[in-house]
Amino acid sequence: MNASTAVGGEERPVAAMPMPRARAEEPSGALGKKADRAGSGDREALSGTDRTGSGGGNSRGPSAASHLRRLLELLATGAPAEALGAVTGQAREAGVEGTDLAETERAVATALRVRSSLRAHRRRELELAALFDTAGDLAASRDVDEVLKAIVRRARMLLGTDTAYLTLPDEEAGDTYMRVTDGSVSPVFQHLRLDLGEGLGGLVAQTARPYATPDYSTDERFRHTRDINAGVTEEGLVAILGVPLLLGSVHGGDRKVIGVLFAADRSPRSFSPDEVALLSSLAAHAAIAIDTARALDDTRAALAELAEVNEVVRAHAAAVQRAEEAHDRLTDLVLRGGDVREVAVAVAGLLDGALTVHDPGGRPLAAVRHDGGPFAADSMDAGWLVSAAEESRTAGRAVARSGRWICAVLAGHELLAIMVLHRGHPLADADRRMFERAGVVTGLLMLLRRTVAETENRVRGELVTDLLTDTGRNPALLAERGRRLGVDLDRPYLVLVADTEPAARERLGSAAVRYLFGAPAGCAGAEHAGAVVLLTVADERLTPGQCARAAAVQLGHLTGAPVTVAAAGPVCGPSRIADAHAEAVRCLRALHVLGRHGDGASAGELGFLGVVLGDSKDVNGFVRGTLGPLLEYDARRGTELVPTLAAYFGAGGSLTRAKDTLHVHVNTVVQRLDRIEALLGADWSRPDRALELQLALRLRELSG
Fold first, then answer.
1. Pairing relation of β-strands 175-182 and 524-528?
2. Nearest to 666 by CA among 685, 642, 694, 647
3. 609 bridge partner residues
4. C-alpha–C-alpha distance, residues 522 and 639, integer Å
5. 568, 600 contact by CB (below 8 A)
6. Cis omega before residue 570 (within 30°)?
């Protein structure tokens, strides 16, 4: 019969295989009955021996009892079958014959059967112990590779084969690969990959039944390929047994093959049904190990996914809590009427970064760190900042630019301010929404403060109007009224006069209120004589002309049209504000005559051009503005600095001719000129300044 036919199918070749071993599958009950019959025969033989020995009249030859005893001793010590079979020859040589010899032969045959049964039981015990050990490995180990290696190693040991190996399908690659090998010496075989359905393993996987072949190279039941044949040939394998690794219910019929376990010899061999069953049991353990590993992987993946979900939930809860905290803090600021800096401190602390707030032109209004301390921000180009704010306004959300987040603070379509968050790490969606909400709160606060400022400015505007029109009012009363309104007229003030094209004049008044909103405390403004008049606290770091130009730029941006600004001062006291206003008005008219619309300048920068080009030729104002220090000094000291200066210019800068004109010593002229320089400044003799002084002296002389 062919020993390589399928096992467990309609073909039952393994059951027809030669059985080189004893019948280990006989039930223990049958073995017990045979042993009883053998024992009965032994007792009869021993009884006959005893009777012969007692002289019972039996004339037969030597008894078989001693040989039977010898047989039992050999059986008890586990002697080989040859030693048991030799007992019959020993009895024959000892003269045992007839019935005793026949009984001895039967006893030897029984002993051989008992020995075979014992060996089968011991082998079964070893197999069961191996299966129990494998089950223990499954229970104790979480490393599937170690368990599979132990299973393959035990398969090789229990079946006594040269090699054992396990193949698993690769679902991504669509083929099968060697997962574990034991006893293999060929690298080609150890790294062999085969397509589904190829070789003996492909047949096992397709049919889900064990298959064995005594000679792989000549077996035509399965598809041979060049790669498989090369690997098997290099390994030197001849006889191969393969059993499937099955998952699923035995009775349900829906069973899945997840791999194949092999045992192979390098010489021809037939595999018994017991060996097939043993390898199938080990394959079942391997399937359990793989399925458990997959279940553990799925569990780990589920746990990891659950941890991720939990982290998302925790992050969301934290974001909700932070949003609630931010809402409470920002609401409190609104209710308390907080200022822009307080909002900046709160937002910087909530978002863990530095925050700067800028006006629509890009000028900084507040700059704080996350801990509330001052923040020295890197210089940002105003044009870049305004462009980023415009992008934020168009998008309706905060935008990221150059490592910063920019949010436009809006009131409808009007840009109130620009918020810039300086933070080294990205801004999460929840934090971005918090930042944008802070922009809304900032806009609300700025609108509230603007409303208050407009109300206050109307009252202060009345003060400014009175300062310009009612010059005869008691200055002390005006100063007291200003202090009650927060305007300290004893401080140095600049008087700014601004106007624009007729179509934009209505917007200029509102723009002036917003301009004052970002200015230092104590400023005021009013609309007067078709222009806007602003009283701003003098900044020692800037000249009046620089302040005028900065105001022209910002007011022009707020108005949306060119705004021309003239500055005069700084002056202190109510009585001098009207004079400074008249000077600024002359300067403004001169700027328009010069075509410098949308520009800014001070009366001091224009000099005599203000008198020449201004509409109301204020000669006395120009003379006082130019020669005022000398006139006051002569009035207090009774000196003649003004006549000396006129004589010096009249003499063409000659000290000798000047002293003749004045009828004084030349040293007196030098001393007077030193005093003039101390009062007017070191640049008094510079050509442009000298021209203004000569013009003022000439106008004074002509006006009497």
1. unpaired
2. 647
3. none
4. 40
5. no
6. yes
Secondary structure string (H, E, C) spanning 92-108: HHCCCCCHHHHHHHHHH
β-strand 563-571 against 600-602: which pairing, if any? parallel
Burial class (CB in 10 A: 0-12, 13-18, 19+), 302: exposed
Which of 556, 557, 661 lies closest to 599, judged by CA?
A: 556
Residue 470 has pLDDT above 50, yes or no: yes
Mean pLDDT of 221-225: 85
Segment 152-195, tens digit of pLDDT? 888 888 888 999 999 998 888 888 899 899 999 999 999 988 88
Averaged confidence pLDDT in the chain? 76
Nearby residues of 548 by Cβ (< 8 Å), 6 or more positions away: 496, 565, 566, 567, 600, 601, 602
Q: Residue 163, by phi and psi: left (phi above 0), alpha (psi -120 to 50) or beta? A: beta
Strand partners, 355: 368, 421
18-46 pLDDT per residue, tens: 333 333 333 333 333 333 433 444 433 33
Largest CA distance in the chain: 197
Distance of CA 305 to the CA centre of its chain: 17
For the chain, what's the residue count?
704
Predicted local confidence at residue 12, as pLDDT: 36
- Per-residue H/E/C for 622-665: HHHHHHHHHHHHHHHHCCCHHHHHHHHHHCCCCHHHHHHHHCCC
In angstroms, the CA 197 to CA 523 distance is 93
